Amino acid sequence: MATKQRGRPRSFDRDEALEKALHAFWQYGYEATSVADLTRALGIGAPSLYAAFGDKEALFDAAVEAYARTDNGTFIDRALAEEPTAVAAFTRILREAAVGYTAPDHPRGCMILSVGVSATTPEVVDKMRELRSLNLANLTARVRADVAAGVLPAQTDPEKLAGYTGAVLQGMSTQARDGADRDLLERVAEIAAAGLAVAAQGGEVGASGA
């Protein structure tokens, strides 16, 4: 007669647990997401969470790294690498943000922008600021490259053009969090793209033709 073996507890899927933690931080922010919230969302006890990820801040760091591998975390770098000009890349970034920020399979908006606005823990504030600054630096470098290559006029202000694009992205993320739908954000993106086109021709972003 075969001896019935006691089954070992099924270990949780670390990647699946990390995705749930990512969504919790993305939706509610760092401070508002407690360890109790995380264990509930992940379906594991606190000892298992600490054993797998360390403390809450370490889990948040892992969630940010996981976000950087998602479509929402990579679309800016992809556009900068694949489009032939800064204006084409920025236009694509704005259009893809309208889609990504309102997608139904994850919390709305951009995690980095959302957490950055709500965070008060100094380490988290600094981390989010560094990531935002890195994105702006990459946008600025793309404009500088086009100015150096003669694609954009010599008088183009790279920081201004990159800052404009970054500000629109932040606004779109906030509006998505507030319930704006994809159609509205796509219209916002097109208006902003028109401003970028004016800048590419040597005009001022937001200038009117009165």
UniProtKB/TrEMBL annotation:
<dbReference type="InterPro" id="IPR023772">
    <property type="entry name" value="DNA-bd_HTH_TetR-type_CS"/>
</dbReference>
<feature type="domain" description="HTH tetR-type">
    <location>
        <begin position="11"/>
        <end position="71"/>
    </location>
</feature>
<keyword id="KW-0804">Transcription</keyword>
<dbReference type="InterPro" id="IPR011075">
    <property type="entry name" value="TetR_C"/>
</dbReference>
<dbReference type="InterPro" id="IPR009057">
    <property type="entry name" value="Homeodomain-like_sf"/>
</dbReference>
<feature type="DNA-binding region" description="H-T-H motif">
    <location>
        <begin position="34"/>
        <end position="53"/>
    </location>
</feature>
<dbReference type="Pfam" id="PF00440">
    <property type="entry name" value="TetR_N"/>
</dbReference>
<protein>
    <submittedName>
        <fullName>TetR/AcrR family transcriptional regulator</fullName>
    </submittedName>
</protein>
<dbReference type="Pfam" id="PF16925">
    <property type="entry name" value="TetR_C_13"/>
</dbReference>
<keyword id="KW-0238">DNA-binding</keyword>
<dbReference type="InterPro" id="IPR036271">
    <property type="entry name" value="Tet_transcr_reg_TetR-rel_C_sf"/>
</dbReference>
<keyword id="KW-0805">Transcription regulation</keyword>
<dbReference type="InterPro" id="IPR001647">
    <property type="entry name" value="HTH_TetR"/>
</dbReference>
